[in-house]
Amino acid sequence: MRARDFGLVCGTLPTGPLNAITDVAGVTVGHRTRMEGDVRTGFTAVLPHGDDLFREKLPAAVEVINGFGKSAGLIQVEELGQLETPILLGNTLSVGTGFEALVRRALAANPDIGRETGTVNPVVMECNDGWLSDIRALSLTVEDAYAALDAAAGGAVTEGAVGAGTGMSAFGFKGGIGTASRLLVLDGRNYTLGVLVLANFGRAGDLVLPDGRRPEVPKLRRQDFGQPDAPERGSVIIVLATDIPLESRQLKRIARRCGAGLAKLGAFWGNGSGDIALAFSTASRIRHHEAADLVPRVVLNENRIDLPFRAAADATQEAVLNALLAAPRMLGRDGHMRPSLADVLGEPGQ
């Protein structure tokens, strides 16, 4: 189930055919889910295009909304404005595993890395699934990361408790993977902006729906939710893809507006929350061995950037709701539990 099944609509812009990040041509998503014993975890992979990203890089940018988190590769993305590997999402203690997987894949495809040319910058981001999953088990392997990468496909994206979202929580409910997209018209041509979120943030009781309702989290056990004034210690990772021609500076400005979508939901980016948005454009490629001194670029007129600003905020808001509504109630390690928002809202259409 998704937000629109419950009549929850974010903004006025139209969605893409799938209302997913995969509405952006060439973008694919894959999951590897691990659920056994006390483990509720996994990897999610986002592939911006089907070619070798090291050879055919994309303009990219990162916006650190609140930096309480672990990651790999973001410093170089910030400095160079380029993305040169797929994006892996996992849990906090799997960043090194994802790093190794992306490096090994890049080395296998590019024998000159570390020899005739430079090294590679793998991008891995995370949230902490330790409430529902035994994060200390270090259960995710390089093979799990490969499985997520190999499973990447276009079409509808599986949402909720899947891949990296398997053990995540948001606003006291079961969280996880969610996605949404928006269509924009620029110079008479259709463009797409899509978002995928790993939602693991927000205090119980703070969630605000687009219609103004504040759904109450069923407190079946006191220890499942803590005190009302408990600090915000969650995280959210946002991956934004678009086919609008943009430079990295513009992508960073658009990524920043994803935070507006989080704020509409009731988030305030607490001290212990790691909230990061990474954006890329598929409209042009940056060749690794570019021979020209000067290269042409077509980019968005800055006076038209409000439209993708709005699209980023609305798609982020809806992607989080889709994650919450797709995820079923889950019992995790040590009897910890997260209820489903869909169960609280009742049957779709009510």
TrEMBL record:
Listed InterPro entries: ArgJ-like_dom_sf (IPR016117), Peptidase_S58_DmpA (IPR005321)
CDD domains, sorted: DmpA
Gene3D superfamilies noted in UniProt: L-amino peptidase D-ALA esterase/amidase
Molecular-function GO term, any one: aminopeptidase activity
Organism superkingdom: Bacteria
Similarity-based family: Belongs to the peptidase S58 family.
Record-linked PANTHER family: BLR5678 PROTEIN, D-AMINOPEPTIDASE
Official protein name in the record: D-aminopeptidase
Organism: Azorhizobium oxalatiphilum
